[in-house]
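Can anyone check this?
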Amino acid sequence: MRALLARLFDDAALCPPERAPVDETLPAYREAARDPVTGRLLCPASRFAELRTRLVPEDLLDLVLVADTGIDELPEALDAVRAEPRVRPAAVEVGVPEDADQARAVAVTLARLPPGVPARIEVRPSPGWRDALDRIAAARDHGASLGAATGAVSAAFISACAARDLRFTCTDGTGGTHGGGPGFLNVLLAAAHAAAGEPDVQPALERTGDAGLAADLRALPDDAARAARRLLAAVGVRDLRASRTDLRHSGLIETPDTGEDRCP
């Protein structure tokens, strides 16, 4: 399970719509960062100055900078992050307008990205989105460190990324494995099926029952688990504690006597 779950959860608590207080998010992330399933902290550029005032000397946070202030302001925001030794910039995440032709908007975004910066480009489920993925994949093939992102994961999006061998991240809108829409167990299983070349991953997203989903994930061979995670880079979650608890309840991670979580 280690290959499947390592650094799966990015902490999206600071991002809309919740925009949790930094004073709550930062201590929770510090505690969760000891867990091997915890990945990076997502921080909107508009909130980085606030985050910086709450850092302590011992911090060394892996950070994804979300370009909510716009692509034009991104270089200045990146300079501020790079000047802070208590964070390590892992990537930037840039969204394109929902009402724009996605292919054209992505082309403009790619042309204006600061050079040499690993980036996730959020593609909306709007006209041109498949062509937008083509553009991201083409830039990736020319040496850029790029992946796709979505806030509305779907079978079509997962399959399209798999067809282009394009890594993606998504946001778990349910905050766990329950609620309206696919949870992260469903997304993991769909990614595994897509990476294996299955043409339709919709049944995996529609599955219910954590025990059955967990059993199928546990049964994946190591090479299939690694292939799934080569496709699915991370899932952004609103509540790290709740998501880790869901993993424990599903039996995919254990809680030893130390009180920390580990992958079995």
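Reply from J.R.: I decoded it. The first helix runs from residue 2 to 5.
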